[in-house]
Sequence to fold (258 residues):
Amino acid sequence: MYRWISCRSIVERIHGTDKRFGGKYIVDPYQKCDLCCVYCDASEDIIYIKHNAVEILINEIERIKRGRVILGSATDPYQRIEEREGLTRGVLKILTENGFPVHILTKSSLVERDIDIMKSGDVRVTISFSTMDENISRIIEPEAPAPERRLETVERLSKDGIRVGVAVFPLIPYVSDVDIERDVKRFKDAGASYLIYEYLELKGYVREKFFGKMERFFPEICEKLRELYRDSYKPKDYKVDDMIVKACKKVGLRLGYG
Ligand code: SF4
Fold:
């Protein structure tokens, strides 16, 4: 269900510079997300559409200093409703016309629609994956494009000269890391210029929502995950950092934005 709301402000300033995504500001034209990933707290039944986001941005932009804007830190800017509303497209246009560098984070191939705008500005795109397994993705990211389709998006952006990278967000133990070496090579071959990752955190109601789905469809993986997350919201005793470093090194893929 969608609700249209008016916002009074659309640019959120980050104190200092964001370490994860390298930005100074955040802009989110939507509140919550309709791509329905089971591990995400932005996945909700009601999505709020800030219908006046572009007008408010036009007013606000004159009063702020240049700095990288993150589009998609809390919700996906290219979630399904964007196809109809076009708010992210409008926001991106204003930002690039005014010389603001932009970092877009998304799971959606709809981002390809706005390549024309990206070409006229300093825009970097990070496409996120939590698995390359189509069956698992269909269950845990039911409304997001299939991983293979996202990989095509990486390729398309790269071929069009847009700086593109990959985020393994979230890195789900026993799921995202089944064949890291193979996946990293595929990301690199598709044209990704960097890789970032972050382990799955399971907090609040998301924890049971995630385990519920895993238990029903992938009981064996679920059992191992429950054990791993028994006393913590993070997988404390589970690290695949060395494997990722090694895999990136092998194919020459930068770890982090640089
Ligand atoms: S696409 Fe991103 S913001 Fe949207 S539900 Fe999935 S993880 Fe959450």
In short: The pocket of iron/sulfur cluster is lined by residues 33, 35-37, 40, 42-43, 75-76, 79, 107, 144 (CB under 6 Å). The domain at 2-255 is CATH 3.20.20.70 (TIM Barrel). Residues 42 and 74 are 7 Å apart (CA to CA). The longest helix spans residues 204-217.
